[in-house]
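Quick one: structure tokens for this chain, please?
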Amino acid sequence: MANQYAHLSEVFYALADPTRRAIVGVLGRGPASVSALAAPFAMALPSFMKHLCVLERSGVIRSNKVGRVRTCELRPKTLSRAEQWIAEQRAVWEARTDRMSAFAERLHQEDLSRDKRKHRQP
């Protein structure tokens, strides 16, 4: 199982940065050129390109160069694997939370029963 998700470390590292998450958000609306992606960010193009390289290396995006224009697009399959891992973790924690809630409710009911018996005894 650990090998199945080994690649996710790179994906989560790529998504940990707010600039890269913003890029992913823009690309969620469709492919975009590097210049269009870089425009809203107050950073030099070489710095911006480093962010794109991290995203591409992780498999979150891919880029294609036609002439002088490099266009980037999301790779949904990579994000789907991360989403699947998160969903699996959520299911585990929800099951634990449900068991804890049931346990606490059972203890509460036992306390109520004990209190009722105490008050009935003269």
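The chain is about 65% helix and 10% strand.
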